[in-house]
Amino acid sequence: MSFAFLRTPLRRAVVQRSLPRAELRNQFRSSAIRRYTTAESSSNPPPPPKSNTALFVGIGAVVAAGGVAYYVFSDSDTVKSGTQIAKVKANFVPTKDDYQKVYNRISELLDADDYDDGSYGPVLVRLAWHSSGTYDKDTKTGGSNYATMRFEPESLHGANAGLHVARELMEKVKAEFPWISYGDLWTLGGVCALQEMGGPKIPWRPGRIDGTATEATPDGRLPDASQGGDHLRNIFYRMGFNDQEIVALSGAHALGRCHPDRSGFEGPWTFSPITLTNDFYKLLFDEKWVWRKWNGPKQLQDKKTQSLMMLPTDYVLVQDKSFKKYAKAYADDQDLFFKDFSNVVSRLFELGVPTQQFVTPEPWIMKNLDE
């Protein structure tokens, strides 16, 4: 796709430090299992890993002579990591270079010969998406700020099934960089995955804090792939997005695949599921789509190869007049899609985070591993 925030004392720290890879797998592997959707569900997902529930983040950059001043939010209810408490007391404030090291480490973990199509990239995008897409602009609850998918029952919501894979992978990075909040880690993981899979640069900045189970969001805030246009608008308008942005965000379905044991749906959207392109839109217009005859939920398949799928929420993009004009524009122009996608994903990953928490007024551009 909860704001009892700012109940925390402020601590000030001054920073005096100055501010690939990716051999993209363009070839579709018919023997691989691609799995990614915003509607995955599973009957028996493993329990979420126990969280350190740590809170440490530099906030509200103030440019000053000789350095940059940052505010650090600390909350006695949520700061439980001894490592992070020690770093806060020592006035450790991570710089952009520190976050770049985290990005690089995530990038090194993307390759996975024994998982899906050989990459954890799509599932990391889905983790970042689902941890952010719970935002409600009216109640100002949800979003990426508290990383509440670590807790039940949110971790067990049908739309989050299978994301234990991504969360467990991120625990490896968290162990190496215990100072980073889960919200920053997960969204940075999404940025890394998108950029390393051939996508555009995604502006990103840290500042999210870790909350508790009391901030967990209710079920039903993420898209239900079996629904139509009205449902999409209800879900995305609640977050603050418009029709054009709905269509742009849908382009993430160029990546990954659905699992029968999670959402019930099956198959990939494109022939290059670990490379971000505008193929999702091109295939919607260029292929003949028919309803699949099988025992699973209602989904479409391409008539020619019967190896690709589209969800009902995907197909509505070429049926709804407003959605269709944007989908056609993206099908015709990948550069336009990348530009709009970059902008809206950056906004998505910041949903629910108070502006004053961010360490910098302007988002950063993280380097790819091979840069």
UniProtKB/TrEMBL annotation:
Domain Plant heme peroxidase family profile: from-to ranges: 87-371
Taxonomic classification: Eukaryota, Fungi, Dikarya, Basidiomycota, Agaricomycotina
GO CC entries: mitochondrial intermembrane space; mitochondrial matrix
Reactions that this protein is recorded to catalyse: 2 Fe(II)-[cytochrome c] + H2O2 + 2 H(+) = 2 Fe(III)-[cytochrome c] + 2 H2O
Biological role: Destroys radicals which are normally produced within the cells and which are toxic to biological systems.
Family: Belongs to the peroxidase family. Cytochrome c peroxidase subfamily.
Gene Ontology molecular function: any one: cytochrome-c peroxidase activity
CDD domains: ascorbate_peroxidase (cd00691)
UniProt cross-references to Pfam families, sorted A to Z: peroxidase
Organism name: Tetrapyrgos nigripes
One Gene Ontology biological process: cellular response to oxidative stress
Keyword Protease attached: no
Keyword Mitochondrion belongs to the record: yes
Protein localization: Mitochondrion intermembrane space; Mitochondrion matrix
Enzyme class: oxidoreductase
The enzyme's E.C. designation: 1.11.1.-
This protein's name: Peroxidase
InterPro entries associated with the record: Ccp1-like (IPR044831), Haem_peroxidase (IPR002016), Haem_peroxidase_sf (IPR010255), Peroxidase_I (IPR002207), Peroxidases_AS (IPR019794), Peroxidases_heam-ligand_BS (IPR019793)
